[in-house]
Amino acid sequence: MGLCGSVIWVSILGLCFWVAGAAIGVNWGTMAIHPLPPKIVVEMLKDNGITKVKLFDADQNTMSALAGSDIEVMVAIPNNMLAIMNDYDSAKNWVDRNVSRYNFNGGVNVKYVAVGNEPFLSSYNGSFVNITFPALQNIQNALNDAGLGDTVKATVPLNADVYNSPENNQVPSAGRFRADINDTMTQMVQFFNQHNAPFTVNIYPFLSLYASKDFPFDFAFFDGGSAPVVDNGISYTNVFDANFDTLVSALKAAGVPDLPIVVGEVGWPTDGDINGNVKNAQRFYNGLLPRLARKQGTPLRPNIDLDVYLFGLIDEDAKSIDPGHFERHWGIFHYDGQPKFPMDLSGQGQTNKTLVAAKNVKYLPQRWCVFNPDGKANVSKLADNIDYACTFSDCTSLGYGSSCNNLDANGNASYAFNNYYQAQGQKDMSCVFQGLATISTQDPSTGQCKFTLQIDSHANHRVASPLLLVLALVPLAVFMF
Ligand SMILES: *[C@@H]1O[C@H](CO)[C@@H](O)[C@H](O)[C@H]1NC(C)=O
Ligand SMILES: *[C@@H]1O[C@H](CO)[C@@H](O)[C@H](O)[C@H]1NC(C)=O
Ligand SMILES: *[C@@H]1O[C@H](CO)[C@@H](O)[C@H](O)[C@H]1NC(C)=O
Ligand SMILES: *[C@@H]1O[C@H](CO)[C@@H](O)[C@H](O)[C@H]1NC(C)=O
Ligand SMILES: *[C@@H]1O[C@H](CO)[C@@H](O)[C@H](O)[C@H]1NC(C)=O
Ligand SMILES: *[C@@H]1O[C@H](CO)[C@@H](O)[C@H](O)[C@H]1NC(C)=O
Ligand SMILES: *[C@@H]1O[C@H](CO)[C@@H](O)[C@H](O)[C@H]1NC(C)=O
Questions:
Q1: What is the pLDDT of residue 375?
Q2: Is 118 tagged catalytic?
Q3: What SMART domains does this protein's entry cite (predicted)?
Q4: CATH number for the 15-328 domain, one of 3.40.50.1110, 1.10.1040.10, 3.20.20.80, 3.30.420.240?
Q5: 378 burial via Cβ count (<10 Å: 0-12, 13-18, 19+)
Q6: Closest Cα to atom 10, ligand 1: which residue?
């Protein structure tokens, strides 16, 4: 904690690089019912010595909270804005408004612009295939025209399904871009190469495991234990290396063998699936972080300091669960900024090191909404009421293999009712459910199953608002420095 918590210390005490190992980045997503205020999150990043963050938009409150922190930022253009960015003037406006504007002494240290988010996912049916590269070109050109091109690079965070190896030769050296997008991928990587911009890829060993019952369990982790995949004399003992090197081979085939690669997302969820739990997440991070600190690289790119952003920082209970219930449980912190498990971000392997929790978080009063056992209400209405509660709040911890799966029927009802009540900011009318619910001042949590006490967005918001002043002062600041 602390010593290398700020960039100032890092530059004064050069030694800190050695102490801190790799500089880990994190993904800061905000799709939460009651998101933590940005200012609290930025303090939490600093307290944990996290110096790089990847965003999914360019939200003004987030950006103002980051101002002056020196944290390196990847700011983003969501997929639904890619079509607009096919127009150069719109791209220029975006850059003016969301990058140049923060480029002052004490502003935001923007290093990358993410153009889209996994736009070539097969599940998008090609909707973004023809509009991503033009958007990328316009954004990089607008950055160059704004005089920022040397320090700010446009990239596209891509899902690992943009490349593969043939069905009959599943080895990394056979990696190529997916046939249906080969042309646009080839143009894009050559553009990155010309502009000294990196390729950004999201790699998810958890999803490899989730996708296939036949996937060798231990191959998802870094501690060996499964039969290696042998490729031209190289033994691959984990899917992360194999996947990364499949990309290295695809880049080589596309004529850019040395293009730098940023890992935009990598992590392990802690709930919402039989393999999404703290034990597996710890095993995964305990393998990943020391490798990054050792600058081990992969067999085809050995001894490199990989640029990596963990996914994610905080749980997001409003994310779509189309991919699976685990989708809301990727955080290394709970929704309220409490750490989930011991973790040594420096990669020095201290197994008892705890992350620093968010400070000054204001919670709603100590009240929970639970099943009313007085027997007066009509219990045949229970299922409908649970359904309703779960439609408007997060019940993903109730499912098979999840942290609250061992509750009895009444416990289930309590869990669902409480999540709805908390999501609604504890409004009295939100704990009725046709007489089936009642308010309790006792925390109903049992063992692993934690009943939520939501954070108070209003109280927290008052803490955050003076930050907007920073922006109001921008023109003055530019003048002064
Ligand atoms: C800047 O980013 C914000 C947040 O992502 C977005 O809503 C806004 O439209 C962007 N500004 C311009 C001029 O494109
Ligand atoms: C893609 O196509 C499938 C099947 O035709 C459809 O169910 C799905 O909604 C489509 N997705 C998008 C994002 O268009
Ligand atoms: C993308 O462009 C190609 C070639 O011009 C065209 O065949 C294809 O239909 C386009 N795809 C979409 C989704 O617009
Ligand atoms: C992919 O595209 C590049 C450039 O257009 C071409 O040279 C290469 O042969 C293509 N690869 C495949 C497998 O189609
Ligand atoms: C953490 O573990 C290290 C050895 O790995 C030990 O020296 C240290 O005292 C432990 N700290 C705490 C707080 O338990
Ligand atoms: C309970 O609700 C069910 C279905 O809505 C209804 O058929 C039943 O009559 C109700 N029982 C009582 C005691 O009100
Ligand atoms: C509680 O809810 C979960 C998820 O909806 C379900 O799998 C489980 O069977 C329920 N348990 C009881 C006792 O109703």
A1: 87
A2: yes
A3: X8
A4: 3.20.20.80
A5: exposed
A6: 94
Taking the CA of residue 125 as reference, the ligand 3 atom at the shortest distance is 13
Distance 434 CA to ligand 6 centre (A): 12
Ligand 1, closest atom to CA 57? 5
Residue whose CA is closest, atom 13 of ligand 6?
378
- Whether 265 is catalytic: yes
Beta bridge partners of 109: 72
Whether residue 380 has its Cβ less than 6 Å from ligand 6: yes
Cα(121) to ligand 2 centroid in Å equals 11
What is the band of 461 on the pLDDT scale with cuts at 50, 70, 90? low
Q: How would you write the chain as a 3-class SS string?
A: CCCCCCHHHHHHCCCHHHHHCCCCEEECCCCCCCCCCHHHHHHHHHHCCCCEEECCCCCHHHHHHHCCCCCEEEEEECHHHCCHHHCHHHHHHHHHHHCHHHCCCCCCEEEEEEECCCCCCHHHCCCCCCCHHHHHHHHHHHHHHCCCCCCCEEECEEEHHHEECCCCCCCHHHCEECHHHHHHHHHHHHHHHHCCCCEEEECCHHHHHHHCCCCCHHHHCCCCCCCCEEECCEEECCHHHHHHHHHHHHHHHCCCCCCCEEEEEECCCCCCECCECHHHHHHHHHHHHHHHHCCCEECCEECCCCEEEECCCECCCCCCCCCCHHHHCCCCECCCCCECCCCCCCCCCCCCCCCCCCCCCCECCCCEEEECCCCCCCHHHHHHHHHHHHHCCCCHHHCCCCCCCCCCHHHHHHHHHHHHHHHCCCCHHHCCCCCCEEEECCCCCECCECCCCCECHHHHHHHHHHHHHHHHCHHHHHHHC
Write down the domain spans for the chain: 15-328, 368-440
* Among protein residues, the one whose CA lies closest to atom 5 of ligand 2: 125
Average pLDDT, the chain: 91
Nearest CA to ligand 4 atom 1: 182
Instruction: Output the pLDDT for position 269.
Output: 98
Residue 151 — pLDDT band, cuts 50, 70, 90?
very high
Ligand 1 centroid from CA 147, angstroms: 20
Architecture (CATH level 2) of domain 368-440:
Up-down Bundle (1.20)
What gap in Å lies between CA 197 and CA 191, rounded to an integer?
8
118, 167, 316, 327: the catalytic one is 118
Q: Give the span between the Cα atoms of 444 and 412, in whole angstroms.
A: 11
Q: In the predicted model, what is the mean pLDDT of residues 379-402?
A: 96
